[in-house]
Design brief:
Radius of gyration: 22 Å
Largest sheet: none
Strand content: under 5%
Structural class: mainly alpha
Helix content: over 70%
Shape: globular
Length: 466
């Protein structure tokens, strides 16, 4: 009797094993991304001690964070495209060297000016490392199981870097002083930088069109103004004249950028690429998952310490458990994405993130640490799957020549998402008289936004092949 050949297709072949050289390349690229993620959080708990040591008053402490965030977000697209045109390896190595030198300067800073200068240079180095490192990863590992695996490891370390930074920052500040947090970043650079030149392949676009200077000026200026406005608003609200002026200026400059790109023969950002549904809706999912998860972490920190009275160590334990769940998600995500496809995985993980954030509405005034630990850990697992899924959704099907541009959009979405969530929603928890009520309001709005975005992404990617 004839065999039925119409049965379900065989499962996809497993990813071929990585060579020793590929593992080393992956280590270098992921270690650099981990180092940048660590820098976002390791200094936060040290700010009061740092301010007292360097003479930074409370109103100026925000600049320890803002001085890094401005260049790290503002120059991402420019450096991503520069790497496309003139060599991703070259820009990546320059960014690593600058980041390491700036971290050393921050370690030995002697006054506020030297420290803030170092932070700004760290941010500039990070803006070169992140997009070129991601594009080197996507051009080194071919689309399919190998790239899924590489991005899964990278996404896990990215999430873990934020969590470990909060834990290490407190321990190192208490035992070795705040300067040790910057010294740790210097040490990371000294490990990664000597390995990178002999391992990383050079890659660039075959032709080398002239850099789109008007586009670079308008998008960089627009992002700088927008990030400054939102970062400052997180501390002082939206009523300040500087916040309003820079916010409006940022919007106008980004509008001018769109006009410039529509007319330039070799634009910094290809508008047809932005009109691709996978790029537009993939980045929407990324923007929402980053901005809303950073907001949850912010308001939970306030709730655990100010409402429940947990110590900094106790709060760190909660987020340490979250980090362990993120590692677990990083091991599972490539398998889930390989089975269901990055677009379906993005939608489902966003729905899961929103549902577990909604569980946090069960927190009480007197108790809730256990519920907070479980719910935020599960939400973080979904968040990590969403990070990997949106990166794959945006970059899949993009030619190697435009990988720097695509990954620049991915990382710009990441940086802007981390920046905008807290000032847009976190302020609801801090401006009212009832902190607990404000936290609940933020969590309810946060969950609704994530679920709504998941439905929009699902509608936008409907009919697209997974």
């Amino acid at each position: 009797m004839a065999t039925d050949t119409t049965t379900a297709p065989a499962p996809p072949a497993p990813a071929p094993p990585l060579t020793s050289r590929s593992r080393l390349i992956l280590f270098v690229l992921c270690a650099a991304q981990f180092m940048v993620a660590l820098d976002f959080s390791v200094l936060n708990v040290a700010l009061p001690v740092l301010g007292a040591d360097l003479g930074l008053d409370r109103s100026a402490l925000q600049w320890a964070v803002t001085a890094f965030a401005l260049p790290s977000g503002g120059f991402l697209l420019l450096f991503g495209r520069t790497g496309d045109l003139y060599g991703r390896r070259r820009v990546f190595l320059a960014g690593l060297a600058l980041f390491g030198a700036a971290s050393l300067l921050a370690t030995f800073a002697w006054d506020p000016t030297s420290f803030l200068t170092a932070r700004a240079l760290q941010g500039l180095g990070a803006a070169a490392i992140v997009p070129t490192g991601m594009s080197l990863l996507t051009t080194t590992f071919p689309e399919g199981p190998q790239r899924d695996r590489a991005l899964g490891i990278s996404g896990t370390l990215l999430s873990l870097g934020f969590t470990i930074g909060m834990l290490l920052g407190g321990v190192m500040t208490d035992t070795l002083g705040w300067r040790s947090t910057m010294g740790l970043l210097t040490a990371f650079t000294l490990v990664v930088l000597p390995l990178a030149p002999g391992l990383l392949p050079e890659s660039r676009t075959p032709d080398r069109p002239r850099l789109d200077v008007p586009g670079a000026v308008t998008v960089t200026g627009g992002l700088l103004a927008l990030i400054y406005a939102l970062s400052t608003a997180a501390e002082r609200g939206f009523g300040g004249a500087d916040v309003l002026v820079t916010l409006v200026s940022g919007v106008l400059l980004l509008g001018a950028f769109v006009v410039v790109e529509s007319r330039h023969p070799a634009p910094l950002v290809s508008l047809p690429m932005l009109r691709r549904r996978t790029v537009a809706f993939g980045n929407l999912g990324g923007l929402v998952t980053f901005s809303m998860m950073s907001t949850v972490i912010f308001v939970l920190t306030l709730y655990l310490q100010d409402t429940l009275g947990l110590s900094a160590f106790g709060t760190g334990v909660v987020f340490g458990v979250q980090g362990l769940f993120s590692v677990l998600a990083g091991t599972l995500a490539p398998r889930l994405i390989g089975r269901f496809g990055p677009r379906r995985a993005l939608v489902v993980s966003l729905l899961g993130q929103g549902a577990f954030v909604a569980l946090l509405l069960g927190l009480g005034r007197e108790s809730g640490a256990l519920l907070a630990t479980v719910a935020v850990s599960l939400a973080s697992m979904c968040h990590l799957v969403a990070i990997i899924s949106y990166g794959l959704t945006v970059t899949s099907g993009v030619s190697d020549e435009e990988q720097g541009l695509a990954t620049g959009l991915v990382t710009t979405t990441q940086q802007v998402g981390i920046t905008v969530g807290i000032p847009l929603l976190g302020v609801l928890a801090t401006t009212g008289g009832d902190l607990f009520g404000g936290v609940r309001t933020v969590l309810a709005v946060d969950a609704a936004i994530v679920v709504g975005a998941a439905l929009l992404v699902a509608a936008g990617l409907r009919g697209r092949r997974a």
